[in-house]
Design goal:
heterodimer, A: mainly beta, 22-stranded antiparallel β-barrel, 14 helices, 59 strands, elongated, B: mainly alpha, two-stranded antiparallel sheet, 21 helices, 10 strands
Chain lengths: ~1150, ~525
């Protein structure tokens, strides 16, 4: 289909409205035509195609059939110039093929107030061109067919539902210069030579049809929608836009790709699919991934705004099979319509709706097994005992050897050798079943679905697991000009958590549990063995015991609903009222029975937490939308007003003293009973408007403004304005490009945008200083109520804003290959953050005041490539994306103090990246006391490193010192202290990439999804735990290569209790290359042939097998280089097994690595 | 203005019925947004500062909150006792937790949470006291006595917080007003003289404002005696012996204090706030919630208990993060009572193998059969209370920050320094008498000043073992700079082998230096 490449619709600088103000002059011809025709070098058409009429042709017809008149004076004008002159002065537009124009033909003409047809007739007299006026508006230029008897063929072109199609070009096959286009009734009439055999009907949106003439004079044609070439429409906020008219940066995700990945959370399935979007996540059931669009741009919540069917709602319990489309609004222009909430980007998700047509039933289900594949290599019993005893002996003073490790003790452990990772990790299961029903008429359509999702984790014990039951009803009704509908989704989720002490890192404890302890011990109270303080000395908390004895779960009910009514005043003006409501009710249950899991882990009183809460967000939106084309001007506009209110109410009940047998409900508690609670409300009042203007399908403009008022700020700072502007230029539609552009280039679009977005993601009421009224004391053994100010508020906090700039180019080749490249620069200003203030204020670090302190810039390139093709029964497609990210902190508020993260391992400082890894540089291992003494002698304090530094300890590099005034000199000062820390690596990948490829041959299909990152470092905190060389917990086998006086040729330091030299301090030792490439999905499918299906009365059956996380190519030695930890901002690079996006108030411990899964599934259609 | 778009829509839509219906709904639903009040939301959970400081009760609550700062992990829920005791030679820390073990052996890294939590929690008390002192005059008081008392309590608590801060860190910022602007968040360190001068002044003013005693409902609030005692102690710590002695004398002259007959009554939940007590932190298992006070603003369910007992308590009843040194046991055993028994203070302080020794309802000989040489911390534990162990973390035993015995001993020390050896000997013997130790007053009265110092050191070690005074004594007596004494300390407690000059004070928390460029690190780190 190389149809569209060589024709275009001519038009230029033309303004319809203005022209009408010039009344025509009186006199007709002043001049006649002077024609200069140099050669009549007849252009031989090689073209096999005909006129292309672009979609925007279908303009409403003028009321007057009266022909317009024109006054014109041209000298030596080319034919296109001549046409343009007429276009400028009239409402007519010309449609023609360049190739039929005699190129060297020049026109000189001077007419006054003459009918256009007369002017044309005169001017084109000798060109062999003829013209037809279609719809009183478009003048179609075609080539005269001479000498052959003509046949008049006419007919109507309609679509599959019988609607007339306007603007379809109709031409003779092989002689494309003879043609016309259909009018608004789909009607055409064409004079063709008798010899004509085939007519071609072609339109951008439709599949081209070829119809043999065979002497017929009436040919009616039904065109089918062109699937591959159909105009892709993208959902933008409060409206839609054709993808090729986009000016902002919006990525869409193919729901088919999402459906290949077994997960409860659509974000997880987006991993690696969109340039500029990073998704990191763990593998535990119910995991909520961390998502960042175009980098870390703020220091509070970096989550984008999620809009599900027009409702601001959480995304993590949404059924993937229900999703119709996902669009990621990445730049300021695209997101600006969401103003104050859009700084981190917007993800718009729409769910499936019924379509006119017959009833459809679809079942989609899969079942699979999962396993954690990777292991840390830890010491066995004998190795452990050697190491721990050596560490005890190395301590000063030497530590007593614990009886369990002392061969001379009766308590010496010899016959136990527990592999805790093997014991703790088990095979998990995952299954999901969805039934979707849909169908309807033009008047009423429905989509109904039910979903069951069940995921049990890969760890021995009660948790984690995730179960979801979901029900959805989406309907649409239409009556005349009135439309209304709704989408309701209700889901119930039962989630269990791994349980551990407080909310500890269970993974770390599984890895460093001592091998000298069996898992089970029937002599203990709960049947699980436990480390003894006096016998083992180890902190080992039997993780399997904990995960079986404690009980932590949450149950939540989630409703996401939207109801809308739309009224169409005219074809171009609609009013819509949309009501959205999201509500989540939850109950977190945590029961800790009386247990004895060893020294640190004894609980003498049974405790229950019963925490309940409810959160909801309601929105009311009124929008007026306008959509009209005036000649070459196409305007889509929306104006709206909305209010949003969010509420949160929580109750925390606690009771203790339950007796056995346990009935863990609050009423059975006998002591320690307390109930606390709180509530929050916030509101947002907004006005917004957007204009999408397109001129002649060449120049595009999008202007947006939103004004938001938020209850979260003080009155003087409450309102913020968020404007944006974007421009697009479709170069391929420029006339002058026609001759320059090779035919295989179908699209060149340049676009640029600028926008300002806001962020208000701080807690409620933060601008007001408040009194903490819980600071009670005790006098006379009675509570004495206390109240004081424990935090400081910054009353003048205001919106955080983000300036977003984006330029991009979209290219299309051969109608098969799409390529986009973009560059963005986002600068966050007045970023709201907790600037840690000195503890001398008495304010705890996590409660420092929120100020508009920081500024961060993110820049990056994004490339997206798509290719698909079909050869016979073989079809294939590939989509790839690559993006880069550069992050720079511009300011940090309050004197730009750096922010230190996890264990002082990360530092965020002005001029550098967020969360850069930071620490000491290792300079080798001390081989002798003389070497240490030598350095000590040179030190100004008589000590180079630590007081108990000994041979076998790390020597850290002295890189900095201070002068007399306390300023850093950048020069060694003979001693190691915190000034000698330096930057060790980036936490943020430089490069993100993803590939999604699929091939199908006849009934078989195969697809591969892969993604990866590179250029970042990870702090392997779990490894640090087993390689610090100190303590009574288990050691890594790497410690077998430790320094000893007899084994000095090593880079592993000695083992010694309490690590007096700080060999385990934050240093480059723990950092590893975080780059990885992962085949996240490999799927093979087989679709049953039609014959079989017909017999079974089914429309479709596909069976498939999937392998997830089959291969990961990485140098990282931890469980999984793709992890998301607690905050993901300052500590993004810290892999400590902790969990991101903790749900609600849940009491749960740690996260799990992404497992390897094998799934089998069926898709069935009725 | 803000409703313009609706008004606009309204005029355009007038014509049609259906539109009207729609619009009425829409406008109706959105109408609330047009009111100016729509975005005016006040915190339903907490009172704003703007409405505080209106009533006498506000002042009472703000003062109570200043006491509450003593219940934090960084204050006397746990770390303050660890910081005070662990570094001394009567305590060793076999803790597997490096934060505690390193504290005991002078190996703390600059970024340890030990220093950080102490720093924030004690400064939190300063801030709360300043909040009272800066605002109390806004409240119209009807009861002048109440005003005086509250102001006195705030001054006393500020003095107390600074007293601990300067003894922990030596070089500290001195903040005496509540914060108004963010510029005030970043103070420099004050000279230690200035800080001490402020401490004297706060305790002195407090002593003039505070009552001598309280009714039952207010038992535990700061008293005149407490302010005088701490003022005297502050003078003593700066070798102002005459001033100190005068204040101790003032305490004695109040006539309300005396030694309790049973030494052990000072460390149990029974017999709290007895006549020997000048100031103690009021812990209780009976009131408050069960959530421990960690590192954040207090919650309504916070417990009013201390984790000292579980931290110091011997395994398997507590964590055993602290253990008595063998030296202190030996020191007790140097002298027998008049009846030839072990010093009763030893048995009140330490679990060790003696006939009939019981702990947590069990026989010592049974529990520690494998190691009968075991010694464990008893003082401030609940081993005699009938509870099976300390492992719910919650102990209700009040922490006695100052006992009358200390007043007497400090007075004795001042008298020795002032040359009144006989007076000194009298008071030392008075303390010994309660322990039923032989009367050696005459012998002591004949000692030289120097010899008497050693006698005082010995007697203080026994009277106050594991009460958090020993390391302060070691430091202020200059033993760490005295090679002979340092060697002696190393024989008492090998943890002193790691002592580095300067480390008699903690490092300024690295996290604090990281956010406040105006601070300088202490020597020795």
């Amino acid at each position: 289909m190389q149809v569209q490449s060589c024709f275009y619709y001519s038009s230029l600088n033309f303004s319809k409205g203005m022209k009408k103000n010039h009344p025509p002059l009186a006199d007709p011809f002043l001049y006649t035509v002077l024609r200069t025709c140099s050669t009549k070098a007849v252009r031989i058409m090689k073209l096999t195609t005909a006129l292309l009429i672009i979609g925007c042709l279908h303009v409403s017809a003028k009321g007057l059939s009266q022909e317009e008149k024109v006054t014109l004076s041209l000298k030596d004008a080319s034919i296109p110039q001549f046409f343009r002159s007429i276009e400028k002065k009239t409402d007519y537009r010309f449609a023609y093929s360049n190739d039929i124009l005699p190129r060297d033909f020049l026109i000189t003409i001077s007419v006054k107030d003459s009918p256009v047809s007369a002017v044309l007739r005169t001017a084109l007299h000798e060109t062999g061109l003829k013209f037809d006026v279609v719809n009183n508006e478009v003048i179609v230029i075609s080539k005269e067919i001479s000498g052959i008897a003509a046949l008049s063929v006419s007919g109507t072109v309609t679509n599959e539902t019988g609607m007339p199609l306007q603007g379809v070009s109709v031409y003779i096959k092989g002689e494309s210069s003879v043609g016309t286009i259909t009018n608004e009734k789909g009607f055409y009439r064409l004079e063709v030579p008798q010899s004509t055999s085939v007519l071609v009907f072609s339109s951008v949106d439709m599949q081209t049809a070829e119809v043999p003439v065979a002497g017929k004079t009436e040919i009616n044609v039904v065109l089918k929608k062109n699937i591959s070439e159909q105009e892709e429409v993208v959902i933008i906020g409060y409206g839609t836009q054709k993808k090729k008219d986009l000016t902002g940066s919006i990525s869409t995700i193919d729901p088919k790709t999402l459906n290949k990945i077994a997960t409860n959370d659509p974000l997880k399935a987006m991993q690696g699919q969109v340039a500029g979007v990073s998704v990191t996540s763990g593998g535990q059931p119910g995991a909520a991934p961390a998502i960042k669009i175009r980098g870390i741009g703020t220091f509070s919540n970096n989550n984008p705004l999620f809009i599900i069917d027009g409702v601001q709602a959480p995304v993590n319990d949404l059924v993937i099979a229900d999703i119709e489309s996902i669009q990621v609004l990445k730049d300021g222009s695209a997101a600006a319509i969401y103003g104050s909430r859009a700084a981190n980007g917007v993800i718009i998700i729409t769910t499936k709706r019924g379509k006119t047509g017959k009833f459809r039933l679809d079942y989609n289900g899969y079942y699979g097994v999962q396993n954690i594949v990777k292991r840390y290599d830890v010491a066995n019993t004998q190795q452990y005992q050697t190491l721990v005893n050596e560490a005890s002996a190395n301590a000063e003073p030497a530590q007593l050897i614990k009886p369990a490790n002392d061969p001379s003790s009766p308590l010496f452990v010899k016959n136990v050798n527990t592999d805790w990772q093997k014991e703790a990790f088990k095979t998990g299961n995952i299954q999901e079943h969805t039934i979707g029903l849909s169908g309807g008429t033009d008047a009423a359509k429905y989509y109904v679905s039910v979903n069951y999702f069940d995921h049990t984790g890969t760890v021995e014990g009660k948790g984690p697991s995730y179960k979801r039951y979901s029900f959805r009803v989406n309907t649409d009704f239409k009556q005349g000009r009135f439309k209304f509908g709704e989408s309701f989704n209700y889901a119930k989720i039962d989630q269990r958590f791994m349980t551990f002490l407080h909310t500890g890192n269970i993974l770390g404890y599984i890895v460093n549990a001592i091998p000298t302890l069996p898992v089970y011990d029937s002599t203990t109270r709960d049947g699980y063995s436990s480390a003894s303080q006096t016998i083992h000395g180890s902190y080992t908390a039997n993780p399997i015991g904990f995960n079986n004895v404690l009980d932590s779960k949450t149950e939540r009910f989630r409703f996401i609903g939207n109801a809308y009514g739309e009224f169409e005043f005219t074809k171009w003006l609609k009013y819509k009222l949309s009501l959205g409501y999201e509500r989540t009710d939850w109950r977190d249950f945590y029961f800790e029975p009386i247990h004895d899991l060893g020294w640190f882990y004894i609980n003498n009183i049974a405790k229950l937490n019963d925490w309940r809460g409810s959160g909801n967000t309601g929105t009311i939106e009124n929008t007026l939308s306008f959509d009209k084309t005036f000649g070459r001007h196409s305007i889509t506009a929306v104006a709206g007003q909305s209010v949003l209110e969010s509420n949160l109410s929580r109750t925390f009940a606690h009771a203790e003293g339950f007796s056995q047998p346990y009935f863990p409900v609050l009423s059975n508690g006998t002591s320690g009973i307390s109930v606390t609670g709180d509530e929050y409300k916030s509101r947002l009042s907004s006005y917004f408007g957007r204009v999408n203007y397109s001129y002649d399908d060449r120049y595009l403009l999008t202007a947006t403004i939103r004004r938001d008022g938020s209850s979260r700020f003080a009155p003087q700072n409450r309102w913020g304005n968020f404007p944006s502007l974007a421009l697009g230029w479709k170069l391929h539609n420029e006339h002058f490009m026609q001759s320059l552009l090779p035919s295989y280039i179908n699209q060149i679009k340049l676009r640029a945008s600028y926008g300002e977005l806001g962020n208000q993601e701080i807690g409620d009421y933060q601008y007001q200083a408040y009194i903490n009224s819980y600071a009670h004391a005790v006098f006379g053994n009675q509570l004495a109520l206390g109240a004081t100010q424990t935090t400081f508020a910054v009353p003048d906090i205001k919106w955080e804003s983000r300036i977003s700039k984006n330029i991009g180019i979209d290219l299309e080749f051969f109608h098969k290959l799409n390529f986009s490249a973009e560059y963005f620069e986002n600068t966050g200003k007045d970023i709201l953050l907790r600037v840690q203030i000195p503890g001398s204020t008495g304010v705890y670090p996590d409660e420092s005041p929120i100020v508009n302190g920081a500024s961060v810039k993110n820049t990056g390139f994004e490339f997206q490539l798509g290719y698909n093709d079909k050869k016979g029964s073989f079809s294939y497609s590939i989509n790839a994306n690559v993006s880069t990210l550069k992050n720079e902190v511009l300011s940090l508020g309050y004197g730009n103090n750096p922010i230190y993260g996890y264990g002082n391992m990360t530092k965020t400082e002005v001029g550098r990246e967020v969360g850069e890894l930071y620490g000491f540089v290792i300079d080798g291992i001390f081989q002798s006391q003389a070497e240490i003494d030598g350095l000590n002698a040179k030190s100004p304090i008589g000590r180079y490193q630590e007081a108990l530094t000994r041979p076998g300890d790390y020597r850290f590099k002295d890189i900095n010192g201070r002068d007399a005034s306390g300023k850093l000199t950048g020069q060694p000062d003979g001693k190691i202290d915190d000034d000698d820390r330096t930057y060790l690596g980036s936490a943020i990948p430089k490069l993100y990439y993803g590939v999604n490829a699929s091939v199908s041959y006849k009934q078989f299909d195969l697809s591969v999804v892969a993604s990866g990152v590179s250029g970042n470092k990870i702090f392997n905190a779990i490894r640090a735990g087993i390689e610090s060389g100190a303590g009574w917990d288990n050691y890594s086998t790497r410690m077998l290569d430790r320094w000893t006086p007899a084994h000095t040729n090593t880079n592993v330091p000695r083992v010694v209790m309490y690590d007096p030299n700080g060999n385990g301090r934050a240093s480059a030792r723990w950092l590893e290359n975080g780059s990885f490439l992962r085949i996240t999905t490999l799927q093979v499918g087989y679709t049953l042939p039609q014959q079989i299906l017909r017999k079974a009365h089914l429309s479709n059956i596909r069976v498939y097998a999937t392998a997830q996380n089959l291969i990961t190519i990485t140098k990282y030695t931890g469980f999984d280089p793709d992890f998301a930890n607690n905050n993901g901002l300052f500590d993004r690079a810290i892999d400590n097994g902790l969990y991101p996006n903790r749900p609600f108030t849940a009491n749960e411990a740690g996260g799990l690595p992404n497992p390897r899964s094998f799934l089998f599934g069926v898709q069935l259609g009725l | 203005m803000r409703c313009r778009c609706i008004a606009l829509a309204n005029s355009k839509l007038k014509a049609m019925n259906i539109k009207k219906i729609l619009l009425t709904t829409a406008v109706g639903l959105s109408f609330t947004s047009c009111g100016k009040k729509y975005l005016e939301l006040t915190n339903p959970n907490q009172q704003t500062t703007a409405t505080f400081w209106k009533t006498e009760n506000d002042a009472v609550m703000a003062v109570n909150a200043a006491y509450q700062s003593l219940y934090y992990d960084g204050t006397f829920m746990r770390f303050a006792q660890c910081a005070l005791d662990f570094r001394a030679d009567d305590v060793v820390s076999p803790s597997p937790w490096d934060v505690l073990a390193n504290t005991a052996s002078f190996k703390s890294f600059n970024n340890s949470i030990m220093q950080q939590w102490l720093w924030i929690a004690f400064y939190g008390g300063v801030t709360r006291a300043n909040f009272v002192l800066d605002n109390i005059d806004k409240v119209p008081f009807k009861d002048q006595n109440l005003y005086n008392r509250l102001k006195g309590e705030a001054l006393f608590l500020r003095g107390l917080d600074y007293f601990y801060l300067i003894n922990f860190f030596n070089n500290i910022p001195l903040i005496t007003k509540f914060y108004e602007t963010s510029a005030e968040y970043f103070p420099s360190q004050a000279s230690s003289q200035d800080v001490w001068a402020q401490i004297y002044q706060d305790f002195d003013q407090a002593s003039q404002l505070l009552p001598v005693s309280y009714g039952a409902a207010d038992l535990g609030r700061a008293t005149k005696g407490a302010a005088l005692g701490f003022l005297g102690k502050s003078y003593l710590f700066n070798q102002k012996f005459d001033l100190a002695a005068a204040k101790f004398k003032d305490v004695m002259n109040l006539g309300v204090y005396d030694l309790v007959p049973d030494y052990g009554d000072n460390f149990t939940e029974a017999n709290e706030n007895n006549k020997e007590s000048l100031f103690e932190i009021q812990f209780s298992r009976d009131v408050g919630g069960t959530t421990l006070g960690w590192v954040e603003s207090p919650g309504s369910d916070w417990s009013k208990t201390t984790a000292r007992a579980v931290t110091f308590g011997p395994a398997p009843f507590g964590w055993g993060d602290a253990a008595p040194s063998q030296w202190i046991v030996d020191e007790y055993k140097k002298e027998k009572t008049k009846t030839g028994d072990d010093d009763p203070r030893l048995r009140a302080t330490i679990y060790y193998n003696y006939p009939g020794c019981k702990l947590y309802g069990q026989s010592f000989q049974t529990v520690y059969a494998a190691n009968l040489n075991f010694i464990g911390v008893k003082k401030y534990g609940n081993g005699d209370s009938g509870r099976p162990d300390e492992k719910d973390w919650r102990s209700g035993v009040n922490e006695r920050l100052m006992r009358y015995a200390d007043i007497l001993m400090m007075y004795a020390e001042c008298e020795n320094e002032l040359g009144n050896t006989a007076e000194c000997a009298k008071y030392i013997q008075r303390i010994r008498n309660r322990a039923n130790l032989p009367d050696r007053e005459a012998e002591f009265a004949a000692l030289s000043k120097e010899q008497m110092r050693d006698r005082i050191a010995h007697e203080r070690a026994l009277e106050f073992a594991l009460e958090g005074h020993r390391f302060d004594d070691i430091r202020r007596w200059g033993w760490l700079q005295n090679p002979t004494k340092l060697t002696e300390l190393k024989t008492h407690d090998p943890e002193f082998n790691n002592y580095v000059p300067g480390r008699e004070y903690f490092s300024i928390p690295q996290a604090e230096i990281d956010v406040n460029k105006n601070l300088k690190q202490n020597a020795g780190y």
